[in-house]
Amino acid sequence: MLIFKESYESNNYILNNPVRTMGLLVIAIDRDNDLGRKTGIRSPVLGREANVKAALELGLADPEESDTNTMLAAISAYDQLLESDPDVEVVTICGDVRVGTKSDMKIANILDQVIVKTKATKAILVSDGAEDRELEPIIRSRLRIDSTRMVVVQQSRPIEDTLYTIIHKMEDPKIQRQFILPVALVMFVWGLMTWFGHKELASGVIWVVLGGYMLIKVAGWEEAIRNFYTELLTVTSERVAFYSYAWLVASLLMIVAILQGLDQMQEVSNEGILAMVLAFLSLDGILLLLLASVILIEIARTIDSYLRDGLFNINIVRFIFTVSSMGLIAAGIVEILNDIFVLNNFDSRNAQYILAGIVLAFIGLLVHDSIRERVNDHSFDEINDTVISEK
Hints:
six-stranded mixed sheet; 16 helices; 6 strands; elongated
């Protein structure tokens, strides 16, 4: 029976057991790993008996879980196909609670293992919603999909029970993070600004907070922020990484930079939207502290790497010069655009920013190459000394 428990069998152990070769796979998809979270069963769940038992455990753990119906629908499709085609197998594949790249990569990896073991070439995809159907291109790149089926659970409740359903769904941590948290942020910021008598600034602050939240979601920084928070607040005997402190300082610098940029926008508010945007992006606005934050984070990362592994990454030298040169070039572009489109008076001296940025990038390249050659020569001498001493 191929059911995976978190604390017992591993994927490799189960998949290395003999399984007869199949031509067609009936695949039930659980993209957010409800099966694993609620029952402790690890995917892949391969075979009819294993899927029946897993579906029963999931149904007992959460009778309202739609993935139970997905698994039963896959079993039903398997039974129907088995009557005419003996080369068929049913499998349930789960992803990760953090739906996205990590979840999809996990499903793709498990699917590859199942294909290697079963030698399947075709598939029938069974899912319970559009979110799971997003995996169809991944599966199609590995197997020919002959059919897809979406399982829709029929409800006999009256319309009045809709409120209960909404409240029940709000208890799901995934729903809370995706929908309730942004609404809570809006309400919190609006109430806070109104409380302190700055209601006129509330809408702007709300957009900034929501924009930051969406940026964190899109960039995938949630796990890094969670680890950073844990490291700072957990009292242990281990050394807290410089990287964590650097993120804290960089965050403070960014807050100051944004406030500084808003001050610059306020000073030129009478000159139009373009002038305000350019003032916000200028060296006197957000640009200088933004560059300092980026460089600080990378320096801290390099220090941590050296203290942990004893290896110094010389690429940090090129990174510092590159970021600084890009900052100068960006500052020059901002000043030139401001001269042409806002002041209508081009000042050629602002082109010196761009020239200085190009020169600085060239100097950084020379310094980096020089340091790398010295490091390589030093490493080569150490190897020679070691060989001579062994002889």
